[in-house]
Amino acid sequence: MIGLVLVSHSRALAEAAVELAGQMVAGDDGPRTRIAAGLDDGSLGTDAAAVADAVADADSGDGVLVLLDLGSAVLSAEMALELVDPDVAARTRLTAAPVVEGLVAATVAASVGGDLAAVAREAEQGLLAKREHLSPDGAPDAEPADGSSDDGPASADARTEVEVTAPHGLHARPAALLVRTLAGHDARVRVRNLTSGRGPVDGSSLSAVATLDARRGHRLELTASGPDAARVLEAVDDLAQHQFGDRPPPPTTPPTARGSGLDVAIGPAVVVDTSVDVSDYRAGDPDAEQQRLDGALRAATDQIGALAETADQSATAAILDAHRALLADPALLEPTRAAITSGSSAPEAWTATADEVHRRFAELPDAYQRARADDVREVRDRVLAALVGRPGTEAPRPDAGGILVVGTLDAARAAGLDPSSVGGVVTRRGGTTGHGVLIAQARGIPLLADVGDVAIHDGDLLAFDARTHRLLVRPDDDQRAELEQLIEARRHEREQAEAAAGDPVVLGDGSAVHVVANVGAATDANGLRESGADGIGLVRTEVLFADLPELPSVEQQTAAFLDLAGAVDGPVTIRTWDVGADKPLPFLAIAPEDNPFLGARGLRVFRTGPEPLVQQLQAVCRAAREAPVRVMFPMVSRPDEVDWALARLAEAGDREGGVPPGLAVGAMVEVPAAALRVAEVARRLSFVSIGTNDLTQYVMAAGRGNEAVQDLLDPADPAVLRLVALVCDEVGPGVDVAVCGDAASRPEVAARLVALGVRELSVSPPAIPLVKAALRGQ
Amino acid sequence: MATLDDVVAWLRDLAGTMKEHAAELTELDSAIGDADHGTNMARGTAAVAALLDESYDDAAALLKKAGMTLVSTVGGASGPLYGTFFLRMAGPLAGKEQIEAADLGAALRAGVEGIQQRGKAEAGDKTMYDAWAPALEAYDEAVSGGQDVGGSLRAAAEAAAEGRDGTEPLVARKGRASYLGDRSAGHLDPGAASTTLLLESAARTLG
Fold first, then answer.
1. How far is CA A688 from CA A670, A691, B30, in A?
2. By CB atoms within 10 Å of each CB, which of A98, A281, A323, A511 scores lowest?
3. Residue of chain A whose alpha carbon sits nearest to that of B122
4. Under CATH, which number does the domain A153-245 receive?
5. What CATH class is the domain A3-134?
6. Are B71 and A49 within 8 A, CB to CB?
7. How far is the alpha carbon of A576 from chain B, nearest alpha carbon, in Å?
8. Are B68 and A49 within 8 A, CB to CB?
9. Which fold has domain A505-776?
């Protein structure tokens, strides 16, 4: 939770303000709030060293917001940031928010799990309600926001009552969704908590809605006036029926426009230089520069908004949302404005700040968080382009069949490409796992990554085959004909594969191979039936619930599992929480480790506190009564760990009236030790699933994410395949062997795995038709 | 040339100076601020004087300690400002047993840059920077003209006094005085006054 520090000249003032804010939250739910106020001898004043101590004390690792009164409080707080640990300083923000109103709003926002940006935003908006209320010209909200308003049904055009169905009440996320829903309509909505008697409040204010203390089961009354009054309340009813968005959305949106997915392309190069030339920029005085910055930020926000409108996948929209959030992030804006005030030009100030933030992200240990650095760079360039008057960083749209050549492919550009028109994309660097690359691939756009500084000029004819990583610049007629044939062959292959995707794979000996899907986000399950999935072979629960602020309830998890079961006609394999210091979750924090891949990870995490695991197993038990749900445990090394996990399952069963009799239970085989002793590991199990990604890194002693040893990370290395063969040979009768690593998604490797005895392949959804086709060809 | 002992003497003199002028500074501050500048500076520099009996490796170590002490004991905006001044001054002097005029110039410049960075004040905002800016310039000019530490500091103190007097007609744009708007004109800035006292004290002791 974000910690708060109040810096004031007066200790009495600070203590009273903290007491006032404390009334907004129940019991111990409030944030850690520390005071740095007055001098030791009781006189008025501020002390930078005391502020530094208070910041360090308030920090729980999530960040600290510092509110301050005036004069030396500001100077002392700024100085304090130079005195604390730089890591703590990096996640500490000083806010210009009003002390009393800001502290109240920040306390509420922090207690509902808001992040630093959200808490700071709420604090800064602390004056809004009062300002509107007192505005002389009768602004829309010039009426009391407390219970004294008589703005009841009489003056409203429509009224509804809903129950708070969100499992944890209207905490930040569902409250934000409610506010956003209301904001999309031309109506004024007031919300009252009938159960607690709080309100009515203005439904357009997140801080105000948060004050309703709407817990699960409370009843809310919403009254609306204005042209959209009836419609907005219908939208709220709908929201209430969907737990205010506090569960993964049901998989309904099928993917729309898709590229060829052939991994091969021929076409004229469209070379894009993403760097922005600011050498002709003429700086004005600081005021003018601030205005230009504001204009550029607005332009960039508008551009991203337009891209988000047309984004055809929710993952893309989420990344664009992140870009929009960066454009309003005080961590970028405040230092930029300060530098402009001290005389820097807007481009200088913006670039310096963005580069600094980029550097901070790029140094983070977690690969996912590191990828945020790309987002910062993309936003930096977009704003710079707007500052120099360029309409955007979008590529000149390649004509039909053109091949875009970029240094790195950013997410926004990848989202802006028309997959039915662009021939392909070539990147010079940036690797194969950046946001932009993943988006392009998910949209079926042929993409060749990391070609380096090959000389390519605008208009050059290019041809590439991504599967063999082969690039031809200005190919001769023979080469061109060869690639065209390849395209034809791939297209034919794909059409055949898709036409037959729904059919089962039966080998020559009559045995069936199930090709099932790996699923992380709920949206991964979209269109699984059409792609021919025989089930879901891996549900990454730590990804499925990754964006929740707290541990999902048993009900929430059960519902999510059943939603997934509804998306396929076969079994759904739930993998229990697979977290570790390399992939922590907000609600399952793991202390940083020197060597997270060899540390407390997967099942090991719960040895000291099994409750989250047991609760997840309860959800598995519940879901398994209604759907063919299976469960498997990650990161097992020894047989006794399976015994321990089964005891936890029994414990969950006791709470749920017994473990459902047909529940299939398995374990991941990703540690070489488990592969070598698979007969013992699996003696009480009905299946094992080989995680080839981790197995390969442990067998080859080559870390995932370490570019220097990527060449060793080959899941088709004989050593890895020999262990797979060993598992198939020795696992014992009646125990099925599956593979759920990325290797299974590669058609040529999939065939070899099946030859070794694997009978279930869990692959990325777009690969299902091709894997099935490759297996039939055996 | 100055030594650690000279710096000790300066800080002791500074405490006495601030005590002596406390009422005067507070009176200036009562006109346009919160009437505590004299008390604050006397309290802070007295706390610094209490450090002087301990031993230090060099002047830089002492100045750092003095800076942190001011930060924690002054209370008003001058705490972080003068605190930063002494902390930053320490940088260029680290490891120097003999402080030449040019060394002290570099230290003063670093200190004043710290003040400006911290307070974000510009010339003409009616702040201590209006005394510091001409003082620095005069100091550097005196050093180029061949003056020693004492002579350069005297030139700086004179320039600071002129700068201080120049704040009288100004309208404050920073600090508590800025709340008064036009009413802040017609009074000397207390920060510029204490800066002048600080430099006069230095000229007496470091020469």
1. 10, 10, 80
2. A511
3. A342
4. 3.30.1340.10
5. alpha beta
6. yes
7. 52
8. yes
9. TIM Barrel (3.20.20)
